[in-house]
Structures are given as structure tokens and as C-alpha cells.
Amino acid sequence: MPRGARIRPEGPEKPAGSERPAGRTAVQPAGPFGAGEWPEVPLKANERVPVLITAGVWLVFLVVPLVAMVTGDAPLGAKVLGCAGLAAFIAVYMGHFIWPWPWRTLPHWVNTAAVTAVLLLCVLATIPAGGLNSFNFLPFTLAIWIFPHRLRVGLPVSVTLSMAWVGVALSVDAGGSRFWLVIPTVMALVIMLALRLAMEREERSRILGEELALSRQRERVGRDVHDVLGHSLTVITLKTELARRLVDADPEQAKAELDEVLELSRQSLAEVRTTVGGLHAPDLGAQLASARTALQAAGIAFRLPDPTSVAGFRPDRRELFAWCLREAVTNVIRHSAATHCSVTITADRLTVSDDGTGLGASVSPGNGLSGMRHRVADAGGTLSLGRTHPGSDRPGTTLEVHL
User: Fold this and answer.
1) Please, which pLDDT band fits residue 80 given cuts at 50, 70 and 90?
2) Which of 119, 144, 172 is the last residue of a domain?
3) How confident is the model at residue 12 (pLDDT cuts 50, 70, 90)?
4) Which of 36, 98, 140, 158 is most open to solvent, judged by the fewest CB atoms within 10 Å of its CB?
5) CA–CA separation, 336 vs 329, rounded Å?
6) Tens of pLDDT, residues 282-294
7) Could you tell me if 287 and 166 lie in one domain?
8) Could you give the CA distance from residue 353 to residue 373 in angstroms, rounded to a whole number?
9) Do the domain assignments include residue 105?
């Protein structure tokens, strides 16, 4: 088994014949591959060397039966047959790593069973000259079942092979040597199963980490796209409505508004592209200017800080306040029915207040507010919502972000 191989965790087996010829099977050596599975097709030339090294390093243990065959008292013909069997065993074993799925129309386990049968024939050829030393071949036979296959396939086959091997060892008239035949067999099985389970646990952890990272990335992209489009489409809608009212009374002004709508749509498209690519980070100064434009288009009076007053803030806080300001102003325009909006920003606090209809008794946070809460929480801050004028007919809403 190549060192550092990755294991695919337990899951449904593919039906026979359903495997894609160019796909991946169950295990692959770490290094030349990246999908975590063995290839079904022969390895490329540049992939063979690292695989053969990591798989072949364990063949050093076959020196024991080789020396026993060469130095033993067996006839010359038995020695030649044994050495040929050992060479064939190494060739088939190593070839299995280069081409682990030679008959792709058959299930994987059938391919491995055929390879196992050939390996056992090779082992039988070594017995006349190697004798009990031929038991050193067992771990290699178990490895091609335990590591490439899911446990529900590899485990019963490996246990069956080991028990058969033990049965043969107990039936051999070897006196006290039986102990040294049985114990290594059991130890080889236990060690390989422990390694297999450890590798599967590591792979499950890796997959879980990747899924968690992907989920967070999707949440971030969804949040960013919502905030970008929510604000931009609100401003585009307002300016389009204004242009529609002006088209007869003041065609030139209507044309100017439509030109701004066109520019906003292009800007929004660019922002969505950069957001999906993970490159979009809004600037607080630019967002204050955008808020001014949006509130003007909505006919809402406003009080905003000068964009230059926030230039000295920390970059991470400017980005967070920019996202929150964007969503807060969008909500004021779309939901508050306010006539006035006030924004104050300090180095650690953003406050957006309006004189609209207020939160209401049964207000439920939408995607924008939930996304804003997540952003603030990730930055270690707090977000609070309250009434601007409690007890008034128009209590308004005050949103405060504190870091």
C-alpha cells in the first residue's frame, strides 16, 4: 500500500459496469493525484515513479523468503521455480498499483480477486524452496483488499484470507514454529485494519472540513450578492420610476436619469462578478456617496458624514461598516416609509436612524438583516435594533453596529 494514500469513506457501492472509464476508484497515493482515489486507467509516465517507490519500499520484507530459497537445501529446480514465483509476485503486485482496474467492465472486487488468484499461484511456486518463509507474502495480499476497497468488502475478504492462512499454518507440522506463523499473520491483519480505519477517519475529517468551508463560502457569496443587488436594484428602480415621471415633463432630465440607470446596471454587474470571484470589498467612502445618491432618488432627507472623515479607520472596519451601511440604507428606502435618515460613524460604531413606521410587533429578519448579523458577529461586534422615537406615531428605527 503506498504511503500517504487517501481513502474514500464508506458509502454506497457503484453497481457493476457503472464506473466511468476516466473516473477514479477508491484509493490513490498522495502526491501525483488530487481527487483522493486510485485511477482506473494506467498511470502516466510522470506518475509511475512516486507510486512505484511508495508501494515498492515494503518489498524489502521479501528479502527473507528470497534468502531462504537461495541458501536452502531445496533442489535447483525448486529454487529456480521459487525465485521465478517471487519475481512474478513482485511484478503482479507492483503492476496492480499502475493499473488497478484492468477489466473495467467488471466490478472492482472481481479485478482484485483475479489479481489475488495470480498472487496466490506465485506464492505456491515459492513453497517448495521457501517453505514456511512463504508466509511473508500474506501482508501484501491483504493490502490490495484492505486499502483500495470499502471496509464492507475488504474486511471480510481479508479476514477470510487470514483465517485460511492461519489454518494452513496450524496444519503444518512445524513444532514450536507454529506460533511464529500464526502471530505475525494476526498482527499483520490488525495493524493494517487499524491503519485503514485511521486513514478513513482522517479522510472523513478532510471531507467534512471541505464541506464546511464550501458551505461558508456559499453563505458568504449569497450574502454579498444579496447586499450588492439589493441596494443596486433599489436605486435602479427608484431612478427608473423618476425617469418615467419626467419623460413628458422634462425629457432631458429623464434622459440623464436613464443614463445613470445604465451606469448603475453596469456597475452592479461588475460588482456581482467580483463578488462571486471573492474579490469585492466595498469602500466606506464610496458607500457614503452611494447612500447619498440613493436617498436623494428616494426623496428622503438625510444627514451623512463626509466621506473623508472615515478615511483613517481600520480597513477591516471600513469594509464591515460599508456592507452594513449599504444594507441599512436599502432597508430604509424599501421598508421604512421614512422622510428623514441620519447616519453617524465613529471608529467603533455605526448608527443609522430613520423616522419611518418602525419595526412593528411581528417583524422578522430577512436575508439582508441576517447576513448583516453574521458579518458583525464574525468581526466580534454586536448589532442592535430599536425605535428612534419610542411612543410616537412614527417611532422610526435605529440600527447600531458596535465593535
Assistant:
1) very high
2) 172
3) very low
4) 98
5) 10
6) 789 888 988 898 8
7) no
8) 17
9) yes
Between CA 140 and CA 283 the distance in angstroms is 61
Number of domains present in the structure of the chain: 2
Q: What is the pTM of this model?
A: 0.48
Whether the pLDDT of residue 162 is over 80: the answer is: yes
Is 161 domain-assigned?
yes
**How many helices and strands in the chain, by DSSP H and E?**
11, 7
Q: How far apart are CA 44 and CA 397, in angstroms?
A: 65
Residue ending a domain, among 172, 188, 221, is 172
Measured CA to CA, the distance from residue 189 to residue 26 in angstroms comes to 20
C-alpha cell at 149: 476497497
Output the pLDDT for position 4: 39
Residue that is written with C-alpha cell 485511477 in the block: 39
HEC letters along 103-141: CCCCCHHHHHHHHHHHHHHHHHHHHHHHHHHHHHHHHHH
Between the two ends of the chain, the Cα-to-Cα distance in Å is 53
Q: What is the mean pLDDT of residues 7-33?
A: 41
Query: Residue 45's domain spans which residues?
Result: 6-172
In a domain, 239, yes or no: no
Q: Which three cell numbers stand for residue 375?
A: 458579518
